[in-house]
Amino acid sequence: MTYSKELRIASLAVQRATILTQKVFHEKVKGTVSKDDKSPVTIGDFGAQALIIQAIKYNFPKDEIVGEEEASTLREKPELSKQVWDLVKEVRLGAGEKDSEVEKELGGSLKSSEQMLDAIDAGNSAGGPKGRFWALDPIDGTKGFLRGGQYAVCLALIVDGEVKVGVLGCPNLPVDDKAPLSADVSDSGEDKHQRGVLFAAVYGEGATSQPLGTEDLLPHHAVHMKNPPIKEATFCESVESGHSSHGDQARIAEKLGISKPSVRMDSQSKYGSVARGAGDLYLRLPVSATYVEKIWDHAAGYLIVGEAGGVVTDAEGNKVDFGQGRTLAKNKGIVAAPKSLHAEVISAVKSVLSAKAA
């Protein structure tokens, strides 16, 4: 089965959502509240989720969505809900035209704040091993978003437990695939790059990159991972030590003979950077025995790296299982690397983790 319509709608939906998130990104006050797990959520997260789910439900009404956010906080805080609605009702593709052709493809604008709240709450699927559902992270890397760093809008279609379509909107990554890997998003000095990248992939059809736009999709080109000697590899890791064990990762780099410092970057922008060869390895090792990854934090990036010539497994080298519900319950840690290097990296990971456990 081809997924050309799914790819186009997902790409347009993510592109439209990044228009909203960038509006919030450039505001000093981002309407931030804390969720039950103490992680932050902004008006940008809520607004992006509403816009994307509305587009998916318009085009694929039977599909379910596993979304990170839900609207109970907005229902309890009308003033916060109004902030989100004021953003959502103004965002559209096609130079602000309400009835542009691309906007029509996504179902047009949401009609009311109540419809917006219902759209957010439609991200309540339990996921699982059978059927079609979408995994959505409206702003992956919210802490990076808040500090002015990298973040990504992430959407993936999962069919019978397998990722079939993946799209990442990375508004702060350089458009140029050859730009040096950096967590910096400033446009001063030598780092004056055009920014905003849309990565996309369909299973078995390769991965692509294109500039983010504000109307229809811009021309894309294929992206491929590099295959450097392991000692010359650049590896990415999370900024937050609560998400990934920096100490273990440093020991693994040393064991592999990698002397370059790691690049610490928020969100699935790491997957996009590795897929296009700006980085080479992505390590996200568990910080505790009880830490469980969420599927929306990995599904889109997993496919994009795989289709760019890489391999993504857990820290034991096992296949990442997206059919276990809303989490990667059967997996611990994530290792992404070029096919030619993956086995060597996994060997180093196992060695360091087993020595630590001894």
Give an account of the 3D structure.
The protein is α+β, with helices and mostly antiparallel strands. Helix content is 34%, strand content 20%. It has eleven helices and 14 strands. It has helices spanning 4-25, 43-59, 72-76, 78-88, 101-105, 113-121, 142-147, 246-256, 269-275, 299-307, 339-357, and strands at residues 33-34, 40-41, 64-67, 132-140, 152-159, 162-174, 195-202, 207-211, 221-223, 235-237, 263-264, 281-284, 310-313, 334-338. The strands form three sheets. The chain has a seven-stranded mixed beta sheet with strand order 3-4-5-6-7-8-9, sandwiched between helices. Strand 7 and strand 8 (207-211) form a beta hairpin. The longest helix has 22 residues, at 4-25.
Mean pLDDT: 93
Show unreliable segments: none
Order of helices and strands: HEEHEHHHHEHEEEEEEHEHEHEEH
Major β-sheet annotation:
7 strands, mixed
Alpha carbon gap, first and last residue = 48 Å
Strand content: 15-25%
Percent of residues in helices: 25-40%
Number of contiguous helices: 11
Strand line-up in the sheet with most strands: 3-4-5-6-7-8-9
Count of β-strands: 14
Global outline: globular
| Secondary-structure-derived class | alpha+beta
Radius of gyration: 19 Å
For this entry, give a set of tags.
alpha+beta; 358 residues; 7-stranded mixed beta sheet; 11 helices; 20% strand
